[in-house]
Amino acid sequence: VRSNRGVAGIDGTVSTAIGAALAHEREGGPDTPARTVALIGDLTFVHDSSGLLIGPTEPTPRRLTIVVSNDNGGGIFELLEQGDPRFSDVSSRVFGTPHDVDVGALCRAYHVESRQIEVGELAAALDEPGAGMRVLEVKADRSSLRQLHAAIKAAL
């Protein structure tokens, strides 16, 4: 497990995932490269999407899946003080950063395979054999993050 500048860092996250995948693949050997999965939010992905541009003479990961949790903005801020339901009338606009970016179109611009899946399809999609880089976009609902994190905390 690796993280980039903490759990809320965004700068260079896609690039870090690509570099980590290239390093990790060496562990699997030339015939069976190890698989790398990166889980990032939509703002992080959009912010660092230019990291998908790899020069034609540079090595490209052979087994990298980037999972983009897309809640159309900065869902992490829903978990902080400003995300308190009492401030919901302004917090989404000020902190949520809605963007409506078409993640698939962004991937196509960089010639990276992508598809949108439901959260219930994620485990099966991750088990699929695949080669190269791909992006799996999972739509998320920002309004349920506080309840989800509270349930996780209660279960620990």
UniProtKB/TrEMBL annotation:
This is 2-succinyl-5-enolpyruvyl-6-hydroxy-3-cyclohexene-1-carboxylic-acid synthase. One of its GO terms (molecular function) is magnesium ion binding. InterPro entries: THDP-binding (IPR029061). SUPFAM superfamilies: Thiamin diphosphate-binding fold (THDP-binding). It comes from the Bacteria. It comes from Mycobacterium colombiense.
